[in-house]
Design goal:
The chain is an alpha/beta fold. About 35% of the residues lie in helices and about 20% in strands. The strands form two sheets. It has a six-stranded mixed β-sheet, with helices on both faces. A two-stranded antiparallel sheet has the order 5-6.
């Protein structure tokens, strides 16, 4: 049986963002909000090389029951849940200035052109969206490190993984509000996973 570990990642600095709002929000997640689970938080450098060398290791090390990757979306004012990730067309330089040598997460024989999470993103948005904290579903994760890490994890296991984009802090939400939004997403996802497990046991 899988250990009940929740793995949440946020990204480190990139471009003119010396502090990344995604990691700020992840850092504020409180383990006491997830009784019965071990909460692991991990900061990911914004480089292709780090993701290639470490994401599979994190899955193997922690054997998470659920993974949430969090990234920063510039110019948005909502919490955005991504509903797909593409295998190729990664043409932007990462935070180290490096371009991806193949522009692909993996060769064609190692993964589909598009990965879709099995967790119902639309259901989560429907459950959580409110005037106090807006959530939307997105099919455009940006073809940068955010989408790259999402595809990488889904290529390991797409049944217990989500990716969420957050806006910059105070545009319009405080970091505390962003952390609350992430907490809500995790609880909603865990509920779906529990329901699926119960259905499989019947």
């Amino acid at each position: 049986m899988l250990e009940k570990t929740i793995l949440v990642t946020g990204f480190g600095p990139f471009r003119d963002h010396d502090i990344n709002a995604s990691w700020q929000a992840v850092q504020l997640l409180d383990a006491s909000d997830f009784a019965g689970y071990k909460l692991v938080k991990h900061e990911v450098p914004v480089t292709y090389d780090y993701i290639d060398k470490n994401i599979a290791r994190l899955w193997e090390e922690h054997k998470p029951i659920f993974v949430l990757h969090v990234g920063l979306a510039e110019g948005v004012n909502v919490v955005r849940l991504e509903s797909l990730a593409r295998r190729k067309f990664y043409q932007k330089a990462d935070a180290s200035g490096a371009l991806h040598p193949t522009e692909e997460v993996c060769p064609a024989d190692k993964g589909p052109l598009v990965h879709i999470p099995q967790i119902d993103v639309g259901r989560i948005v429907g459950e959580l969206d409110s005037d106090q904290l807006r959530f939307i579903e997105s099919t455009e994760a940006g073809l940068y490190l955010c989408e790259y890490i999402f595809y990488t994890s889904m290529n390991i296991d797409n049944s217990r993984i989500l990716f969420t984009h957050v806006p910059n802090v105070d545009e319009p939400y405080s970091v505390e509000e962003l952390a609350r939004g992430l907490t809500m997403i995790i609880h909603s996802a865990l509920q779906q996973l529990e329901e699926n497990e119960n259905n499989n046991d019947k």
